[in-house]
Every structure is written in C-alpha cells, then in structure tokens.
Design goal:
59% helix, single chain, 4-stranded antiparallel β-sheet, 13% strand, 6-stranded mixed β-sheet, 640 residues
Length: 640
C-alpha cells in the first residue's frame, strides 16, 4: 500500500534488451572506432596483467641468490635489469593504450549522446499533439538532461571498465592457475561470495533506481509547471502551498534515491573487505603449504616457494579489485538502463499517422483556367492529387471548407462534438461563440488535423482532408492562438517564422498590416530587438500583435483566429481589428471570440452549446431569433 492507502502498482523490472539496444546503436554509429577502442582496452588490460609474471621472475632471481648465501647485487642487477626494462616497456604500452582509448571514448560518448538527443527530438517532433497534452513538459525535459546523463556514465565509464576488468580478471585467473591451482580455488571461493553479495545488493537497488529516474522526471515536471505559473502562485498567495507540495514530491525523490544508493554504497565496502579477508586467507594458506611442504599443483609444475606466494598475493589483490570494480558498475548500469528505458519509451511512442498523398504546390492559371504546376512562388496554390491509374489532377486552393455531421471525442467513451456541420465558402468569415468547453477550439483543431474525427467528413476544396498530407494541409492554414508563443530571437525572426523565405520587406509589410509596426519601431533595436523568455520584455498585447503578423506573413488562404484579440486592450483592439479586416480579405476565416463586437461582421455566426451547434446565421438574423445569441448580445447571458 502507498502512503494514501492505495495498492501500489506492480513494480516494473528492467528490460535486458535495453542494454543490448544501446550497444547496437554504438556499433552502428561507430562501426570502425568501437572495435578499435575495444582492442585497445583489451591490450591495455592484458599488458597490465602480464607484469605479475615478470615480477615473479625478479623474486625468483633474488630468492635464488639468497638461498646460495652469496647475494651479489651487481650480478643480480644484471639478471634483473632486462626484466625491469620489459616491465617499464609494458607500463608505457599500457599508458599509451589507455590514453588513446580514453580520447576515443570521449569522442564516441559525446557523439552517441548527440545522436540520442537528435533521435529523441526528431521522434518528439513526430508525436501527435495528444502526447504533449497528456505528459508534463518538465518530465519530457528530464529525458534530455537527467536520463541522457545516465547514458554518458554508462558509455564513458561503465562499459570500458567492465570490458577492461573482465579481461584483467580472465588474464590474472590463468596466470594464477599457472602458479597454483589450490590457492586459485581459494580465490575463486571468495569471488563467488562477492558475486553472491553483488547479486543480492544489486537486485535490491535496481527497483529503487528505476523509481528514482521517474521521481526525478516528476520533480522537474513540477518545477517547470510552477515556473510557468509563478504569477498565478503569487497572485493567490499560494507560495506556502506549493512549497508543501514540492516538499512532498522532493521527499519521494529523496526516499527513492536514498534507498537506491544505500544499497549501492554498501556493495563496495563489503566486497573490499571480502577481498582483504581473501588476501589474508591466501597468505595464511600459502604459508602453511610452504612450511608443511605440501606439494604444489600448478600448470607450470613449479614448487611452492616464497617467490610464488608473494606475487600470487599481489595477483589476488588485482583479481579481487577488478571483480569489485565490476560489481560497482552494476549501479551505473542499472541507472543507465532505467534512464534509457524512459528515453526509448519516448522514442517508441506511436508517431502521428499521416496517410495523406495529396500535396500543395505552386501553380499558374492561364486564361482558360488551366492549372499548371511551377517551382516559382506565384501566390497561387493547387492541390496535387495523384490517382491509382497514374494520372494527376490539380484543384485550385480556394479555402472551401466543409464539415459534414462530425462527431469527435478526446477519449472514445466521451464525445465532445456531436453532429457538427459547418459550410465555409471561400472568402467567408465564420465565427464560433459559446461558453468555455462548448467545442469552439476543438472544431479548429479538427480542421488542421491536430486530432482526427470519430465520425463524419471534413472536406477542403472538395477533398477529404484525410487524403491531404498533414504538412501541406497545415501550410495552407494560418493560426493565431489565444496563448502566444514567441521564440528566442529577434522580432524579425519571430515574424519570419510564419514563412522562413520571407524578405525583411514582406515581414515589415505584415507588421504594418496588423498594426504591430507602430510599437516595434519604438523598441530599442526595432525589428532587431532580441526577444527572450517567450517575449517577456513585451506586453501581452504586443506579443499577440507579433503572432498576428507572423500569421499574416504566411499569407494562407484560410485563417483561424482563436481568441486572437482577447489579450489586447480596447484601443489596441481597434487598431488590430482594422489590420485583421485587411488580412481577412479574400480568405476563409474561422474566428473564435468572447467579445461579440469582434464577430458582428461575420458572414455566419454559430452558437455552440455542449458540443452542438444550436444556432447559426448572421448577426442580424440571430438577433431577430431572440435566442441564445440575442441573450448573449443584450447581456442577459454571459459567456463563462
């Protein structure tokens, strides 16, 4: 049971295929460099294992002279110096191999992380809007920071260490068997105990490392949410409340992290002490064998002598030390797999489906009305429609939008729109009014296919929009949202975002059309003024004017204005409205507004209530009906 008394969900185990997938990506990204680095790691490990053999030879020479009772350092030095020279050469080789592989791994690691971020970002760009509506943005950001960092530790440290330690352990094991089978068996018994401890402790920490990664994402999500809503927090004096909520979330992160690292941190000391005990055991057993004259069993056939026991003890330290290193990497691997699993979960999310094949192309129209495709920007567009028999037809883009008996729900069990029909002829201005939650914005989200309908049909210039490629469909639409989003860059950059190839003159003309030019020219650097923090150095109305100019420079045949003037004062609204009227000339326009004064001149006004159109007509006819619209207009009802 959790702290709320509810049953806890089943614990999810780490998927072993995650590590395999990481390794496959590494080999695929660096098919030549990875094997070379692996070779250098193996060579470095082998070279660092071999000195034990030569050290034993040095001891053997010294012991031989001592046994003869005439230790002559000059003679002994001549015998030892070639061995010392070989040892120095081996250590130099080891340093060279280690240096080269370290530099290569730094390049591979950063390249791998860069590739993962790119792949994750590309996958994210292909996700449907629904994904971002149902996931906290801070938690998504955690994939790019915390989860990616766990992969950095895995690739740069854990995998090389595992390979190096495994090779050293294997090499030293054969050398130990070469000198003494009995003492090697003693070491193996100790190692089995270390493996048993690592398995028990590693298994205990794994589930908490998984929970820690999720808790980090949850914490970052809450922080991001509070940063965005800081003004609301302060307006309602909720600072203490959000502190308390954050403390609870942070405590969960603390508890999961503490348990994960509490298990992990005891592994090293336990194995280190087992290694020390093993060292003492080997020294004791070796001494007993030496004093008792017990015959040695070895691959070399050498008898038990002090020159075997002393190097063997050093090899025992090296052997247990590397086994301990292997067990220590379990924690990094568990963390990396938990982070990678979250990353791959994002990358494996079902992308936005697009089966459209009708595309939008530039065209020329001759005096006979024939449509011809061209690569030039002519200001005329056509839908390019390939057919199953190989023929092509072109339909001029006019902005004729038809919604026929459309049903829609964000979830299958609850419809938001019911039997909605909208007929918008080219050049018409269609307005939607109604209370919050009545379905106004949902209708516009269906036109640009942010969501797909449950039933009915939507046609654009007579073509079912399911047949139109989404990117081309959205390119034909201009949208000004109630919530303005500006990007880091200049004012000019933000206006040009509507059409990247637009010239400075076209961007300025769009700003003048919408009335934004007046305040832009008064900014410190005019159109070159740098905007940061979503345009926090501008007023809400100024930000909205830039967003409207951005839509204007795109010059689409269909415009969707979702509460486009809701954040603008009455005086500014009058300026914008004049620009908007010019912008809407010759276009099909869908307007969502709470202020009925902004929709009076619409060709058709539709009143929605709980997902259904209950009234439709122009301003005068709706007033004459004296229904809901009339009540709203005279103030008997209020939009909520």
């Amino acid at each position: 049971m959790d702290r709320h008394g509810q049953p806890k969900p089943p614990r999810k185990k780490l998927n072993g295929n995650v590590l395999l997938r990481i390794i496959k990506i590494l080999f695929k990204s660096y098919p030549v460099m990875i094997p070379i680095v692996a070779l250098f790691i193996i060579l470095s490990a082998i070279v660092s294992s071999i000195p034990a053999i030569f050290i034993q030879k040095v001891f053997a020479i010294i012991v031989e002279h001592l046994e003869q009772g005439n230790l002559n350092w000059a003679v002994a030095s001549k015998e030892i110096m070639p061995i010392v020279t070989i040892l120095i050469a081996l250590y130099l080789f080891s340093i060279t191999f280690t240096t080269v592989q370290s530099q290569c791994m730094a390049y591979i690691t950063q390249g791998f992380l860069s590739k993962m971020r790119v792949n994750m970002f590309r996958s994210m760009q292909n996700l449907p809007i629904k994904y971002f509506d149902t996931h906290k943005h801070g938690d998504i950001m955690s994939h790019y920071t915390n989860d990616i960092d766990t992969l950095r530790q895995l690739v740069s440290q854990s995998l090389p260490t595992i390979l190096q330690s495994a090779v050293i352990v294997t090499s030293v094991l054969f050398i130990m068997l070469y000198y003494s089978v009995f003492m090697t068996l003693v070491v193996i018994a100790g190692i089995l105990l270390m493996v048993f401890v690592a398995k028990k402790v590693g298994g205990g920490s794994a589930k908490y490392f998984i929970r820690q990664q999720k808790a980090v994402g949850k914490t970052e999500g809450y922080i991001q949410e509070m940063m965005n809503g800081q003004k609301v927090v302060k307006v309602f004096c909720r600072e203490e409340r959000v502190k308390e909520d954050f403390d609870k979330i942070n405590d969960e992160l603390f508890n999961d992290s503490f348990r994960a690292h509490a298990y992990a941190n005891i592994l090293g000391p336990i194995n280190m002490n087992i290694g020390n005990i093993l060292y003492v055991a080997c020294a004791t057993i070796g001494g007993v064998f030496l004093v008792s004259g017990i015959p040695n069993v070895s691959l070399s056939g050498l008898a038990f002598t002090i020159d075997i026991i002393v190097p063997f003890l050093n090899m025992t330290k090296q052997f247990t030390g590397n086994v301990n290193q292997l067990s220590q990497q379990i924690n990094s691997i568990i963390m990396a797999m938990a982070g990678a699993e979250r990353i791959f979960t994002l990358m494996n999310e079902e992308p936005e489906t697009d089966n459209g094949y009708v595309t939008l192309v530039n065209c020329k129209i001759d005096e006979n009305g024939n449509i011809m495709e061209t690569d030039e920007r002519t200001g005329h567009w056509a839908w390019k429609h390939p057919h199953s028999d190989g023929t092509l037809t072109y339909t001029e883009l006019k902005g004729d939008v038809l919604m026929d008996s459309v049903d829609f729900g964000y979830t299958e069990d609850k419809l938001v729109l019911r039997n909605v029909s909208v007929f918008a002829n080219p050049g018409q201005k269609i307005a939607f009014v109604g209370a919050t939650g009545s379905g106004k914005t949902t209708i516009t989200n269906l036109i640009n296919r942010f969501y797909d309908i449950a039933d009915g049909k939507i046609r654009y210039d007579g073509i079912n929009i399911n047949k139109i490629k989404k990117s081309d469909l959205r390119r034909s639409l201009g949208i000004v949202l109630q919530e303005t989003n500006l990007f880091t860059g200049t004012v000019m950059d933000n206006i040009r975002y509507g059409r990247l190839e637009a010239s400075d003159e076209e961007c300025i003309a769009a700003a003048k059309l919408t009335g934004a030019d007046d305040f832009i020219t008064r900014l410190p650097d005019g159109y070159g003024t740098l905007l940061t923090g979503n345009g926090s150095n501008l007023s809400q109305g100024q930000r909205q004017l830039i967003a409207i100019a951005r839509a204007a420079v795109a010059d689409p045949p269909v415009m969707i204005l979702d509460e486009a003037t809701s954040s603008i004062d009455t005086r500014t609204e009058a300026i914008v409205q004049r620009g908007m009227d010019k912008l809407m000339e010759g276009r099909t326009v869908f307007v969502i507004a709470h202020r009925l004064s902004t929709v009076k001149n619409s060709d058709v006004i539709m009143v929605l209530d709980h997902g259904e159109i209950i009234e439709r007509g122009d301003h005068e006819s709706l007033l004459a009906q004296k229904g809901t619209y009339y009540q709203l207009y005279v103030g008997a009802f209020e939009l909520e």
